[in-house]
Amino acid sequence: MTVFDCSDPTARRAGLDAAATAARSGHLVVLPTDTVYGLGADAFNAAAVRALLATKGRGPDMPVPVLVGSWNTVDGLVGTVPDVARTLIRAFWPGGLSLVMHHAPSLAWDLGDTRGTVMIRMPLHPAALDLLRLVGPMAVSSANRSGQPPATTAAQAVEQLGSDVAVYLDGGSAAVGIASTVLDLTGEVPTVLRQGAVPLERLREVIGEVQAAG
Q: Where in the cell is it found (predicted)?
């Protein structure tokens, strides 16, 4: 377990290299994002994703979201990107909005019981974006044990996850401090599954009709 201070340019470069190497080797890493800290693994390494779920104390019934480092990456992960998704991406990415869409059927990954969908977000944090551009799409869930509060600092993540994680990138306190808003685009009407960093009203300003689940 190694912690790298991303406020120091030398440590940041070393940390990104170490985190990318660890993720490519099937190990877990903790990365800062704009919302809360994330526990991440290579999205295409099924064993690493299972280790992520086990570390959190969760089962496959709660699939792991995917973070990407660019808008264009979505086209390789989603069967058909709906126009409403592109509108939302232009308005809110990078940022605190996660979009649920049907993933491309050809993808060889196992994120849990996704029922053919994937939750994707592009985070607004330079260290996270740099890591994602080095590794590619990463399965990333909040950096905490199940039932505990999501970590908003690297120290909180270390306290909860300890040596189960190979590399921690310390990017300071998370700017938002609450999880992303999750918007499901697989039905007839976009549906908010989780209220979070992007308010429902802002979504409606951009795309019109949006409903809240339940």
A: Cytoplasm
